[in-house]
Structure formats: C-alpha cells, structure tokens
Write a structure and sequence with these properties.
This protein is mainly beta. The strands form 2 sheets. Strands 2, 4, 5, 6, 9, 10 and 11 form a 7-stranded mixed sheet that branches. It has a 4-stranded antiparallel sheet with strand order 1-3-8-7, with no helix packed on it.
Length: 117
Amino acid sequence: QVQLVESGGGLVQPGGSLRLSCAASGRSFSTYNMGWYRRAPGKERELVAVHRSYGSTYYTDSVKGRFTISRDNAKNTVDLQMNMLKPEDTAVYYCNVRSSLSGVGYWGQGTQVTVSS
C-alpha cells in the first residue's frame, strides 16, 4: 500500500530555515503530483506548494520567494525547503501525492512546524 513518511519539522526562530522531506513508497509516483499542504491553528488546510508530474511548480502567494519545492523521482521523495520563516508559517505540514491521471491521492501523517522566538 502507499505510505508517505514525513520528517524535518520542529521549532525554529523567525527568520530561520527548515527542510521538510517526504518519502513515498508502495508504487511509482512518476505520474503523480507531489506537494505540501498545511493547517494552521483555527484555519483550514491550504495548499503550500506542488511539484507537478510534468515538472512545473506552484506556490501559494504567502511563501513565494521563501519556500522551494523539489522532487526526486528516482527516490520517490519530495522536499520543501523553507527559508525566512515567519510565525504565520506555524502549522502542521502534510505531504500529499495525487495521480495526474486518476485524481487518486494520499496523505502523510503530518509534521509540526513552529516558528517562535
């Protein structure tokens, strides 16, 4: 079965950096979009960034210029490099993979990112 294992969350001061990693297993993900969502306290889950199967990327406006998404199809991994972190980036971050063909998707368990001094 498909499994997504996230790592890299933690506590960081404003202006700091974190790198989230997601390792996917259970099948080939070459035709899947791979991305990251987040849910801040009291807010709905939002899309942060996605790396599409054909290579293009998308970032929500609030993270443009600060976050970078990358994927390695050989390793079935997707990473999110987060720089210049702000307190409003505090959230549980979820890895998501979704088939660009069928729309079927899978979620990771989430990893907490806290930005605080």
